[in-house]
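pasting for ref
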Amino acid sequence: MAEVKKKNFFKGVIGEFKKIIWPSFPTLMKQTLTVVLVSSVVGSIVALIDFGYSQGLVVLIK
């Protein structure tokens, strides 16, 4: 019984995998660059806010 379920599961996975439309290389590179740039900008903003809060706490504690 379990073997039949496993076979059906993997047949379903293979069927769904065949439906995937993979992006072209230029599209993939453009999207990757966008993700890296946006992540860097957001990370920088968070780092600046964190630095500002930590410096503000230092001033308040002194």
